[in-house]
Every structure is written in structure tokens, then in C-alpha cells.
């Protein structure tokens, strides 16, 4: 049995982390049984979540977890795709993980209101005398990484403008198809879904979310993926209420 370690539900999502969501959806795609446990990033071999333990073998990082599943269990997430489509799917994954994801992080961590209602609560269990210092240190480290990513070097409206270009690219790629590459979900769909759900959750209010809501096909796509992989989660009512 595989054990998946993640942050757990929160922020109006079945899983707070887009990368943990990616891995969880891919485990479901592969039809593999798993149990899920909550933990902190410092418990992971690479200091980040997700990681899995599969028969005493620990594998960290969502991309390496996917490779582990494909290698050990012989499941090809991109089976319906030809070579060119596989290359396109990989390119879109890189855009999503290295550009759109950081726009999401900027909206959650650098906006004071969103940080206060969301990530700051990661430290609620810390001793009272350390709590604020831990929050400040974590917010500073994330802001520093956001700067290194490139998006954090721009004014708030400029970084959203850049992120919207990636949203537009994703919307054009999706078109009127049910999934990114066609009629069947592939590995990249798990990645796109994790980040898009994180952007669209009504828990956070941000210019990024407002702009993302202009793409009707992306909203419908997230609804479709949520219905398929988290049917027990009340996602649509949340979006309608927002």
C-alpha cells in the first residue's frame, strides 16, 4: 500500500498544495490504492511535499513520484498521446509549474489579507512566543523565492498580466476539448487541475482569480476534474456561492 504525505484539505480545496493534488490525482488515474497522511515539509526526504512511501521506499517530488509509478507499475499517463503531443504536454507542465504556480503563491503569500486568512495558520500550533517570528520568517522566505522565480520582480499588476498570458495559453490549448490533450485525461491534466483549482478557489480574493474567471473553459475544466477525481467534495456550490 502506498502512503501519500501532504498538507491535507483547506483553503476551500480537498488538498491545499497543487503538487500534492497532482500526485493524488495521478494515483487515482493509475488506479492505485493509497492512504493519505498529513505531515510537514521537513519530514520529506527533500524538504517538500508531496512524498510517498511505497513498500518502505520513500520517493519525493511529484515528478519523480510519477516516474516511480510509471516504472514500477507500468502505467503510462500519456498512453493516448503521440510523441509530439507528449512533448507539448511536458512543455505545458513546465509552464504551469514554473510560472502559473508562482503567480498562485504570490496571491496567497504576499497579499497581507490572504496570508492572514490562509498560510499564517500553518503556524497556529507553534508555541505562542515563537508563532509570529515563524510566520514572518516563512513569509520572507516565500517572498524571496517569489522574487527569484522572476514574477516577484514586477509590480503587482504586471505579474498578473504575465500570469494571464499563461492562462490564455492554457485556455487556447484546452479549447472545447474535455481535457488538455483530448478526450482522455493525461498526466499534465493532474498538474493543470492542481494549479487552476488553487487559483480559482473562492477562499482567496485576488486580481489573479478575477482574471482567471474570464476563461469559461478553464472554470468548466476545473469543475469537470473535481467531479471526476473528488466527487465527494462540494466544489461547485463553493464557486456558485462566490
Order of helices and strands: EHEEEHHHHHHHHH
CA radius of gyration: 18 Å
CATH class of the largest domain reads: Mainly Alpha
Mean pLDDT value: 94
- Widest beta sheet: strand line-up: 2-1-3-4
Helix content: 55-70%
The fold-level CATH name of the largest domain is Glutathione S-transferase Yfyf (Class Pi), Chain A, domain 2
Distinct helical segment count: 10
Please write out the topology.
Elements: E1 2-6, H1 18-29, E2 34-38, E3 51-54, E4 57-60, H2 62-73, H3 83-109, H4 112-117, H5 128-149, H6 156-174, H7 187-200, H8 207-212, H9 216-229, H10 235-241
Parallel strand pairs: 1-2
Antiparallel strand pairs: 1-3, 3-4
Helix pairs in contact: 1-2, 1-7, 3-5, 3-6, 3-7, 7-9
Describe this structure in words.
It is a single chain. This protein has 242 residues and is of the alpha+beta class. It folds into 2 domains: 1-77, Glutaredoxin; 80-242, Glutathione S-transferase Yfyf (Class Pi), Chain A, domain 2, CATH 1.20.1050. The chain is 57% helix and 7% strand. The chain has helices spanning 18-29, 62-73, 83-109, 112-117, 128-149, 156-174, 187-200, 207-212, 216-229, 235-241, and strands at residues 2-6, 34-38, 51-54, 57-60. It is globular, with a radius of gyration of 18 Å. Pfam families: GST_C_6, GST_N_4. Keywords: Transferase.
